[in-house]
Amino acid sequence: MKQSLFEIMENTPLTRDVYRMKLRGDTGDITRPGQFVNIRIAGLYLRRPVSVCDVEGDILTLIYKAVGEGTRKMSGMTAGETLDLLTGLGNGYDLSRAGDAPLLLGGGVGVPPLYLLAKELIRAGKTPRVILGFNTESEVFYENEFRALGCDVMVTTVDGTYGTKGFVTGTINDKPYTFFYTCGPEPMLKAVYKTSKTSGQMSFERRMGCGFGACMGCSCKTITGSKRICREGPVMDKEDILWED
Amino acid sequence: MKQSLFEIMENTPLTRDVYRMKLRGDTGDITRPGQFVNIRIAGLYLRRPVSVCDVEGDILTLIYKAVGEGTRKMSGMTAGETLDLLTGLGNGYDLSRAGDAPLLLGGGVGVPPLYLLAKELIRAGKTPRVILGFNTESEVFYENEFRALGCDVMVTTVDGTYGTKGFVTGTINDKPYTFFYTCGPEPMLKAVYKTSKTSGQMSFERRMGCGFGACMGCSCKTITGSKRICREGPVMDKEDILWED
Amino acid sequence: MGRLSVDLCGIGLDNPIIPASGTFGYGYEFAELYDINMLGTFSFKGTTREPRFGNAQPRIAETPGGMLNAVGLQNPGVQQVISHELPLLKKCFHKPVMANVSGFSIDEYTDVCAMLDKEEQVGWLEVNISCPNVHGGGMSFGTDPAQAAEVTKAVKAVTTKPVIMKLSPNVTDIVSIAKACEDAGADGISLINTLLCMRIDLKKRAPLLANGTGGLSGSAIFPLAIRMVYQVAKNVKIPVIGLGGISSAENVLEMMMAGAACVEIGAANLTDPFICRDIIRDLPAVMDKYSIQNIKDITGGALK
Amino acid sequence: MGRLSVDLCGIGLDNPIIPASGTFGYGYEFAELYDINMLGTFSFKGTTREPRFGNAQPRIAETPGGMLNAVGLQNPGVQQVISHELPLLKKCFHKPVMANVSGFSIDEYTDVCAMLDKEEQVGWLEVNISCPNVHGGGMSFGTDPAQAAEVTKAVKAVTTKPVIMKLSPNVTDIVSIAKACEDAGADGISLINTLLCMRIDLKKRAPLLANGTGGLSGSAIFPLAIRMVYQVAKNVKIPVIGLGGISSAENVLEMMMAGAACVEIGAANLTDPFICRDIIRDLPAVMDKYSIQNIKDITGGALK
Ligand SMILES: Cc1cc2nc3c(=O)[nH]c(=O)nc-3n(C[C@H](O)[C@H](O)[C@H](O)COP(=O)(O)OP(=O)(O)OC[C@H]3O[C@@H](n4cnc5c(N)ncnc54)[C@H](O)[C@@H]3O)c2cc1C
Ligand SMILES: Cc1cc2nc3c(=O)[nH]c(=O)nc-3n(C[C@H](O)[C@H](O)[C@H](O)COP(=O)(O)OP(=O)(O)OC[C@H]3O[C@@H](n4cnc5c(N)ncnc54)[C@H](O)[C@@H]3O)c2cc1C
Ligand SMILES: Cc1cc2nc3c(=O)[nH]c(=O)nc-3n(C[C@H](O)[C@H](O)[C@H](O)COP(=O)(O)O)c2cc1C
Ligand SMILES: Cc1cc2nc3c(=O)[nH]c(=O)nc-3n(C[C@H](O)[C@H](O)[C@H](O)COP(=O)(O)O)c2cc1C
Ligand code: FES
Ligand code: FES
């Protein structure tokens, strides 16, 4: 983990309330796709956790949805401003388990961390199949970016206004896969857990006090005992998950 | 009183820790020298009161010393940023009592409100004598600005490194005057109160909750009863003052 | 009856927004800024039997997310309030007003309440019991259920107007105080008053406020107020007025969901004199966002 | 002996900076970030007899100038702390450490303290009495002087190490609790623990934390902590550790002038993991500004 200042290079809307922010800074501690950063925002007490979407040299890409006070403040920031980030947080996805035909399932703002994952899988010589789920056409983002990487991309929308109508789980078993990686809202993770036919890894969200293991704010129960989402997570093995309700 | 946004046009140091800030905005409620504005500063709960140093059309000039969190934050602001101001606060000096030979006595950051006062007195055909007191040479500011207005200016420094050595009260009775106006730290006001030979008006500072008469945070006892420094003040008649210790 | 209307002890309010005592004077300063008749009502400056200058200077200090005050109940005394302030108030405000009463003995409370009871424009008496009881050992009336009940009973005996007991948060068990007031006949409860705090002047190595301690108000105390309103609303049947750190329409909804029938807004008026006007303006859109048709329906929505 | 050194119950500290329990784990996570041997000491995560998972999710909420937590004393239980955590701690920290102990009955306190008493590296026992007494009606041990005294006496009987009683701010009269602990033999007092608060989720119309209420920490409570430390320090002779909302070297000086012999820093570690290191670095220059030669000389400087 590192604490350092990043300079905003770009902050542009991808949809009505989803933004992409590119920052320049010390990315040295970011070692795996699926890790996250924790962002200090002036006027707010707690930092805000956001997944790493991409890293290229000293350029870090984040994609976030403006949902509350913190992310709304972020959406108003402009190039040249600096942000205090904790980087290198969380375990990240384990690429070694991908097998030959990995499947990536992203829902809404669960899509971003899969981008760096896809990139690394392709670098490792695999062609991931990617299913991106959104509510409606106007919310779709990053389809082309995944395609440009060379992935086999499919988009689903709940209302059918774009791509295939339905949830990502509707088409999950259309083609065979060796392992799955997913990130998205918890109901989607549950559905993937139930429908998936292989082992896999899922990334979770929790309200966080620190983001680096000090406060026990983010603990969850798993098959192998209590784990901190910020440290032993956010990525959990399918086999380890204990749904609490 | 008005609440409105002002745009910073300029924010430059006059000495090591005294800054002049020029702002553009709705100055319509500023009617008298000696009034003040109350400034909202992001991250701080209470506004910060600062005297009006000058108004020309929609340009407001403030001079402030960086002493604590709020004024330090102000000193880091740059042209183009906006500030939320309450304007038109306080009673201001009463020009009608000046007589033919008004005397202006300013100490440190008590100097700024006297500038607009001097300007208005000159506009009314009078030539004020002005004594500006500072601790030491490096803290002196606005001597030339007062001279440029056409005032008869004298500077005193406590350590004698510039102008006349001593306090403003050391030279107060060197020439005759019809009325005095003063602003500065409370020990100076007390000294002026004791040494002065005519009637006069003095401007006070108090920690303020609101700055516009709502909280009773700034009350002081006077000969004619309790008064709010922010509303019935900050300018008080010499005859009305009751020193509390 | 609009979407914002609520009821407080049988008197209808156009909306639940009430500037809090001590932060809105007698209304006429704010009437220069906007038409204060848009408010639900307001609670005027705490009134005592004799005129009080209040505490020595300084009386105000800044804290993270809030402010301390040790004004010390400066007010011109009940006679002057009736003869001088209420006539001025009447000129700019045409609704029932809330009279905030303080006292240092039971007698003082009853004397002041009896006099304000005769004033037609006074709709409610809000009885602030956070002052120390000078005849009862100096402990605040509001920190002991028995004393709180005694004030309530005494005041109820001298007025026919609804009596709202205003509670202090500086207690171990807020529910026991609220219940004691309810059992003694209170028509409503308002809470919270300020939280007793202190700042120290590093240069002087002494408390910053001349009084030593002061009361904390502002955003910092909002979550404390929510907890106490929630606990009290769960345990009493009379209406609760929620206050403490409210500064937005969202805060108003949160306080009402915690159990408040309406809300008061204090320190926020001091840093943003138009805050009550703006909150009233913002409420309908924020209610739409959370699918709230009539605001009165959400009172206590979060109580389980 | 440097300018920053202080004494805590007979054990010297290189400086008065102590990360607070629950915000610094068992130290080894922070040891990856900086050399934690620069600290005065630190207080490790609250330890109970049995392992505890703690409360359901969510456990964390943001508030103006602070945060709520309802972690619920998650810890692996005293046996695991001794067998697993303390050996890890020993590898990265070479000074006496403060053991923070919690309990839901007198027996639990004494069992845990007796076991930790045998650990050489434990310098002080910090006994957190803000948990409810499950055998005594559920009221927190820390809200009643008699119960606070009972815990103190029981713990003192099973250990020879200095016992520091950690007080809850959720009380009417903090001085009476502190004095009861002192009279029962406590060697020191630390305060404040978190302030009981609540936030409500507007979408769900329910408390945001699964537990309903949570404890407020962070800057928002700093002036409350200053007031309580001031009042307690004025009335007890044993050393007081001041904490609550400290996040700068200036805050440290203010807390010590209010009467603290040394300070703990809690929530600030969570949002700025290097805060303790930075405060230790900043202190000498800030002391120069206020003409302070040795920091221990300012303890209680503002008490009259
Ligand atoms: C490991 C991790 C990775 C994440 N990655 C992304 C991402 O790549 N893109 C993205 O848009 N969002 C992501 N989120 C969710 C994001 O953190 C929240 O949307 C954000 O914190 C909301 O802050 P706010 O101030 O706008 O909302 P508010 O509702 O005002 O926030 C109030 C508090 O609740 C917390 N909070 C609110 N929603 C969430 C949530 N869903 N998860 C965790 N804490 C929450 C906030 O952090 C804050 O402490 C991630 C969350 C986690 C835990
Ligand atoms: C009517 C009036 C006019 C003023 N005009 C000027 C001016 O023209 N130029 C100038 O440099 N200063 C002026 N001051 C003083 C100025 O308001 C303070 O220096 C400033 O508020 C300090 O804020 P801070 O955050 O930097 O200091 P901090 O010490 O961090 O402030 C903490 C709190 O104390 C209050 N406070 C601190 N010092 C003073 C003070 N001397 N008077 C009132 N409140 C104080 C602050 O407003 C704030 O609420 C004036 C004060 C008043 C009352
Ligand atoms: C300057 C000031 C003066 C106050 N005077 C009174 C008073 O006279 N009577 C009273 O009941 N409460 C008084 N209060 C308390 C407020 O009415 C309110 O209970 C408290 O400030 C919490 O609400 P807030 O956080 O919205 O300010 C005063 C508060 C402030 C800030
Ligand atoms: C996440 C979290 C966990 C805590 N756990 C404990 C604990 O186990 N034992 C304890 O005595 N105090 C605990 N506390 C309280 C802190 O030690 C401290 O008393 C309080 O947070 C106030 O200080 P602060 O404002 O600097 O955080 C905890 C606080 C937080 C924020
Ligand atoms: S957020 Fe603090 S331990 Fe995970
Ligand atoms: S500062 Fe509020 S009345 Fe003067």
Topology:
The complex is a heterotetramer, with two copies of chain A (245 residues) and two copies of chain C (304 residues).
Chain A: E1 2-13, E2 18-24, E3 36-40, E4 48-51, E5 54-56, E6 59-65, H1 69-75, E7 82-89, E8 102-107, H2 112-123, E9 129-134, H3 143-149, E10 152-157, E11 164-165, E12 179-183, H4 186-195, E13 200-203, E14 219-222, E15 225-228, E16 235-237
Parallel strand pairs in A: 8-9, 8-12, 9-10, 10-11, 12-13
Antiparallel strand pairs in A: 1-2, 1-7, 2-6, 3-4, 3-7, 5-6, 13-16, 14-15
Chain C: E1 6-8, E2 11-13, E3 17-19, H1 28-31, E4 60-63, E5 66-69, H2 78-92, E6 97-101, H3 106-117, E7 122-128, H4 145-156, E8 163-166, H5 174-183, E9 188-191, E10 195-197, E11 200-201, E12 206-207, E13 214-217, H6 222-235, E14 240-243, H7 249-257, E15 262-265, H8 268-271, H9 275-289
Parallel strand pairs in C: 3-15, 6-7, 7-8, 8-9, 9-14, 14-15
Antiparallel strand pairs in C: 1-2, 4-5, 5-13, 10-13, 11-12
Residues 36, 46, 48-51, 63-65, 67-71, 109, 112, 205-208, 234 of chain A line the site of one flavin-adenine dinucleotide (FAD).
CATH class of chain C: Alpha Beta
Mean pLDDT of chain A: 96
* Strand arrangement in the largest pleated sheet of chain A: 4-3-7-1-2-6-5
Overall 3D form of chain A: globular
Task: Provide a brief overview of the structure.
The complex is a heterotetramer, with two copies of chain A (245 residues) and two copies of chain C (304 residues). Chain A is an alpha/beta fold.
